[in-house]
Every structure is written in C-alpha cells, then in structure tokens.
Amino acid sequence: MGRLGLLALLLIAALGAGAGWLDSQLDRPYWGHRADKVFVDIPRGTSRWGVADLLRRNNLIRNTGAFYLFSEWHFRKPLQAGEYLFDRQMDSREVFWKIAHGQIFFHIVAVPEGWTMFDIAAQVERQEVCSREDFLAAARDVSLISDLAPQARTLEGFLFPSVYQFTRHTTCEQVAATMVRRFRTQWGYINSGGMRQFPAGLTLEQVVTLASLVERETPAAEERPLVASVFYNRLRIRNPLQCDPTVQYALAMKGIPERDVRPADLRVDSPYNTYEHRGLPPGPIANPGEASLRAALAPANSEYLYFVANDEGGHFFSRTLAEHNRNVEKLRRSLRSDAAQSDPGQHVRKP
Hints:
By secondary structure, this protein is mainly alpha-helical. It is built from 12 helices and 6 strands. It has helices spanning 3-27, 48-57, 64-73, 92-100, 117-126, 132-138, 172-190, 204-217, 224-236, 244-253, 290-297, 321-342; strands at 38-42, 82-86, 107-110, 163-166, 306-309, 315-318. Strand 5 (306-309) and strand 6 (315-318) form a beta hairpin. It is elongated. The termini are far apart.
C-alpha cells in the first residue's frame, strides 16, 4: 500500500472517529445542573460560537465545539435571539432546533373583560412581567391616549381585555402601550363608520366610561344594550346613575379591596360615587370588551330607568320606581326561598 493510500485510510479513520465523537456529544441528553428550569437569554448579534459557549456555561450542552460544528453544518438556520426556557433534558440537536426555530419563552397575561388597571397590575406582577407599582405608574401616562381622551386621568378603559404574550424583558411601559394599541385596533373595528357624533352628545372618553359601567353591571352580552339604555335614560332626565360598581371603584382607589357594596359605602366621598354625584364618573371604572363598547355606541331603544339582578344571572328591568320595588321584593323572596331550601332548619321557630 502506497503512502497516499495509507494517508487516505488514516483520514477516513479520523473522519469516522470524529463523526462518532460528534454524535456521542450531540445525541445524549445533558442536564449538568440540578435546577428544574433554566432560562437562557441570547442577546441579539451573538455569534454561533457565543451561543454555544453560553449554552455550555449554563450546562445545557455537553461540548461547545460539537454544538458549534453542528450549528455551522446548518448555516442556513440562524440562531434567533431571545429568552429560552429549558425545563427538561434535551440533547444538543434538540437545543439547536429550539433556538433555530425561535421558540422563545413568553409570559402569558390574560386580561378578562371588566378588569380594572389595579387587577391588571396584580396580574402582570403574578406573571413576573413587572411590578404592580411600576405598571400603575405606566397606566398613569395618559400621553398614549391624549388624542382619544384629552381629559383622561389614567389609561383605565383603554387597556383592552385580551390574552397577551410578553417576554421577561418587556417593560411596564411597553405592556401598557401594547394594550392601548389593541384598544385602538378594536375601536377602529367596532366604530368602523368613524362615528363623529356619539349618542347623547357624549365624547369618546365618556362612551368608553359608560361602556365600563355596562361591563361591570352584567356579564350577559345580550343584556348590555338594555343596561346601556337605562344609563342613557337616567342621564337624559338627570337622575343619578346609582351604579354600585362605581362605588366599588371609588373604594379601590382608596386601597379597599373589592367587596359587595354596603349601605355605608354609598356615602364614600369620591367623584366616582354615582349615588352622590349626577352624571357619569370622571372616567372609566374598568376596561370594557367589545360587546360593552358596542352597547354604549348603540344602546337599545327602551324606556327603562331601573334594573335589579334576578336569580338566573340576568336582570329585571322596569320603567317606574314602583315596578322596580316589586322586582326588588321578588328577588328578595327568591333569595329567602333558596336559603330556606339549602338549610330548612334555619327558619324553624325555636320553642
């Protein structure tokens, strides 16, 4: 065998050994740490070697060079910047494809319809996006809506209810701005005709305020136009709106957690207390969803001035105070009946 043939055999053997070593480094899952979860943040512009080194320092791959060679072999697949969560054993190939596919970790923040900015602040803190205090500070930056609501005191009402994805590097200001952008998008869809003259001559901010009252008063989408009509009718004749959720909001602004409204609460000193002050409150008391915004823009045509909850998740509506009082008594009888059925002994007179 000539010298060239020997060199060729040695080269083939070396390549085979190298391939075997590379496979051994790539194929076996590696978990060189005890933590259940590892977060790795890959900065924008990090080289392939830099990514490999970062992963090795976090004990997620066995060998920096092996990962780098595999990455270079797939040079058409860029390694994407972002924060990644590793919460199970993965081999180096799986780690590579996770990053190449950009499977970035997101915090999911669900904001239901009718939540206040205080509720949202607590939620973003629970999801470890930012602190409650920082979010509330961001929610007081009304420059985001100065064109929509020049008189706004906060972003309340304009933080649109939805499900959001944020990274751990998203700031509170970015969170609030994202929610406001979603409001603008949805408002453009709801108010597709570009309505200039809103019902009863209200401003856009007042329409959103009224929608927030509707949102907090009923969970039933089909009832919302009727509830809106009651508020418009009471505004027209200058009757106080007497909306319990406005009292709850007044209490929340004083740091009192939400609870059922008590008789003493109806005298709380606040411009948001619609028992003490006629007209709409100074601003929204929650963040309304699409159905409530539509109801505020297009209320039902009714003569109702009152409503009270029934025992089926909806409301009794009435035109007169006498009729309303009968509905209130009907509700009380139903509640007493339900209580008696749940505990028959409680109404038995003792000897």
